[in-house]
Amino acid sequence: MIKNNSVKVLALVDNRELQLAVLYSSLIFFIPAFVHQQLLTGPIINALLVLSFLHLGKSKSFFLALIPSTVALSRGLLPLTLAPMVPFIMISNCLYLEIFARLKTNDQTINQAKNFLAIFIASLAKAAFLFVISKLLMEKILVAALASKIAVMMSWPQFATALLGGILALLVDASLKKKYATR
Q1: Rg of the chain in Å (alpha carbons)
Q2: What 8-state DSSP symbol labels residue 129?
Q3: pTM value > 0.70
Q4: Can you list the pairs that 90-93 forms with residues at least 24 positions away whose Cβ atoms lie under 8 Å?
Q5: What does the DSSP assignment read for 48-111?
Q6: Which of 2-6, 12-16, 89-93, 128-132 is predicted with the least confidence, judged by mean pLDDT?
Q7: What is the mean pLDDT of the chain?
Q8: What CATH code is carried by the domain that includes residue 24?
Q9: What are phi and psi of 133, to 5 degrees?
Q10: Long-range contacts: 138-143, Cβ < 8 Å, 24+?
Q11: What percent of the chain lies above the pLDDT cut of 70?
């Protein structure tokens, strides 16, 4: 009985998808907890979200998209004044993945440029969504000067980190496919 359960546990641990899910969730959880630089953390998290989508599928990557902003807020990467934005940051991560999912191609014969364009459009949509929401929401609850600063934080930096992260993810994925396709 014990030996039979041990075999089941080992089979579960050998599952590549489970290993990737544990890896991505751990990185997505711990990076914002310890790296407090948005221009470094943002691209890494966005890359991990795109990689999780490419390797685990939409539903699992959507779940992982809920983690980073919560951790970032709890660890001080996001200022407390951004707490009302956390649900919208989560939605923007899912929006980013959804738009990428709809626009990307799996066809190896089509140039990878289509996937880079999909990342660009998804990044633009994410940033635009966050900018509009921050303008609408934060102007209602904060003084104008602070609300304006938050709107800027939710615009081009979000675009830049999503774009850099997405490009990084596509390059890593292409490299992994090339490396393991030859084996």
Answers
A1: 18
A2: H
A3: yes
A4: 90/65, 90/66, 91/129, 92/126, 92/129, 92/130, 92/158, 93/49, 93/65, 93/66, 93/68, 93/69, 93/126
A5: HHHHHHHHH-HHHHHHHTTHHHHHHHHHTSS-GGGGGGHHHHHHHHHHHHHHHHHH----TTS-
A6: 2-6
A7: 86
A8: 1.10.1760.20
A9: -60, -45
A10: 138/84, 138/85, 141/84, 142/81
A11: 90
Looking at the structure of the chain, the number of domains it has is 1
- Domain with 176, as residue range(s), is 2-181
pLDDT higher than 80, residue 110: no
Structure tokens at 137: 């929401």
Taken in order 16, 21, 27, 30, is the CA torsion positive or negative? negative
Contacts of 51 (CB under 8 A, 6+ apart): 24, 169, 172, 173
What is the Cα–Cα distance from 42 to 69, expressed in whole angstroms? 10
